Amino acid sequence: MNDSSWGSPPHTGSRAGYWGPVDQGPVQGAAPAGPAYDAPEAQQTRPMPIGPDVSAHGGHQDDDRGAARLGGPLFRDETYGGAHAGAARGDDTPSAQPPAAVPQNPEPMPDAPHPAPAPQKKSAGRDLGAAIGVGVGLGAVIVASLFVVKAVFVGVIAVAVVVGLWELTSRLQERKGIKAPLVPLAVGGAAMVVSGYVRGPEGAWVAMALTALAVLVWRMTEPPEGYLKDVTAGVFAAFYVPFLATFVALMLTADDGAFRVMTFLLLTVVSDTGAYAVGWRFGRTKLAPRISPGKTREGLLGAVSFAMVAGALLMQFVIDEGTWWQGLLLGFAVAASATLGDLGESMIKRDLGIKDMGTLLPGHGGIMDRLDSLLPTAPVVWLLLVLFVGSG
């Protein structure tokens, strides 16, 4: 059979792929009939095999549309729908456009231009206004108690320690099922701060030992299941929060204790501020992405730079017998310890699966979220000030 037979419409009543003997007349867009369409010879036409069964696609097994789909141009025309699809099916409806006029390889339409997305502004991730307001309020309370009556400031430290212990033990129980006993921790923590202020380092160490013993005994009143993990978490909490905070009270015992504590607080705040400002503006390289994805190496350099400059000024003009080069070392040490303290609590919060330790301070989180960099920095500042200018 010659190629022109693919342009002729099949008989709609044909079976098993035979071309019917009935002459349906010329069809628009079809090739002229050749000898294969003479009525006498059409009866002797051998059956043409049909393509794959189209019944799986929803058509009848004897439907001649399967044969039409085998034709190259006819199959391509079906994609244009309308009259071309009707011609491929053998309909008598005239085609609005001859198949030959349809381009075989139409050029793709160019994509419409999309407007460029609006640039995203960097976000601090917290309510900056609330954070500043709370920070100023806390600063006012600290300064008023620090320079008016030292004993009042010791009470402020003790209250912060008790609240921090409550936040930490509550999160441990909620997230890990660890029941660190709060009562002996709170009593022992407050006693540690007061003992450090009254009796010095020896008093702080004795209070720490007694607090650990109280945790062991207190937990014995409950079933033994989980005893080891509960008392371990309790001793850790006693060391992490009240014992480290005791070094602030130790700084306060010096003659210029109020200025030493102010230097400690200012350096820590300046370090955190430098890390935030530089990291938010220029931060590109992650410092510890698995622990705290928001911290960058550029932010760490900002913390070190800010803290060293502030340390030189404070040691030179605020601390008695201090010098600027000591302030540079002190600022560097504060930036390092504050960053490590922040990363340490971030590690704890990641293990617990939480963002903040609490919600007591709007814009900041909880008390522990503000003590994270202060706690490990306190013994560092206390020790360096004792080495530089003495215990006072």
Explain what the structure shows.
By secondary structure, the protein is an all-alpha fold. Helix content is 59%, strand content 2%. It has 13 helices and two strands. It has helices at 39-42, 65-69, 72-78, 82-89, 128-148, 150-176, 182-219, 227-252, 257-282, 297-317, 324-352, 367-371, 374-389; strands at 286-288, 292-296. The protein has a two-stranded antiparallel sheet. Strand 1 and strand 2 form a beta hairpin. Helix 5 crosses helix 6 (150-176), helix 10 crosses helix 11 and helix 11 packs antiparallel against helix 13 (374-389). The protein is globular and about 55 Å long.
Short overview:
The chain has helices at 39-42, 65-69, 72-78, 82-89, 128-148, 150-176, 182-219, 227-252, 257-282, 297-317, 324-352, 367-371, 374-389, and strands spanning 286-288, 292-296. By secondary structure, the protein is mostly helical. Helix 5 (128-148) packs across helix 6 (150-176) and helix 7 (182-219) packs across helix 8.
